[in-house]
Specification:
globular; seven-stranded mixed sheet; mainly beta; four-stranded antiparallel sheet; 0% helix; 121 residues
Amino acid sequence: QVQLVESGGGLVQAGDSLRLSCTASGPTFGNYAMGWFRQAPGKEREFVAGISWSGADTYYADSVKGRFTISKGNAKNTVYLKMNSLKPEDTAVYYCAAGTGGMRKDRYPYWGQGTQVTVSS
């Protein structure tokens, strides 16, 4: 089984920055791509950013392109999401996921518990 643990969420003002972290562990963790999704109250969970296992390929939702950056740590089981120029509409629970990659939720069988990000105006 694969365990994912997120950290770094919090309450910030519009225009501020935050960095989320996610660490994967477990005896079956392999060469998985990793991604970040988010879910705002009353809305479906949506793709935010993804990164290949090697870290060479990254991709973003249009709504965060140019503001958010996904990256991996030196240990391939850690992924970060640096969020700049935060907007109130970025408020959501942010989830880390591991799987085969892409923008679809069903490509990620493993999920963290989520971390709350709240952006005040």
